[in-house]
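Entry 14. Ran structure prediction on the chain below.
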Amino acid sequence: MFAGSAAFAADPLVSSQDVEKTINDAAAASQAKIDKISDQTRDLVADYRTTVAETDNLKIYNDHIAKLIESQQVEVARFNKQINNITKTQQGVVPLMYRMIDTLEQFVALDIPFEKEERVERVQKLKDMMEDSAVSTSEKYRRVLEAYQIEVEYGSKSFAYQGLLPIDGKELSVDFVHIGRVAFLAMSLDQKNAWFWNREAKGWEKLGDEYITSVREAVKLARGQAAPNLLKLPIEAPESAE
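Output, structure tokens:
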């Protein structure tokens, strides 16, 4: 009977311990779920804050881009206006260049014929250039101005070079020299004969022996072989203006 009583007394204790364990396990499981939910909540809050911060940054960035686009649109409009102005300018510059080249060609034809072949060739190159689409309008204009500048320099400097002089149906090898546009002279290579270009007659005339020394000095001066000095040269009197 004592054994049975002990067994009976032990059963409620065991059951109570099982219940307590079950409750503790359930409580632990619930706490684990709460902790998990809490962690997830913190993660969601962190994500939310990050999203809000990114949204603010995106708004600021979008506003910045919008301002850039607006500024670029203004620049595009300005460039389009400049392009239109350039087009109008080109429409005026191109005819001007043709007129300048024609004027230059006429000038070379009427001027004293020093370095004639080179000058005529330069004008022809300008004409060919005008039909070359690979050369920009600005570069064409620059070359035309450059040709004019070369002609200006011819009038203020002295140049000497060798060439052939047509005299009495023959071509003599001579030293040509032009002093600006004041005088255009020629001297035989043996330095015994000299000629000058007569503007009015548009031909060569033989000079007297009294000019030989001066023409020889003019050639040396143009080549940088002599110091500047007074020269006795045949200078045509200027025509009176009417």
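Strands lie at 158-167, 170-179, 183-188, 194-198, 203-206. Will compare against last week's run tomorrow.
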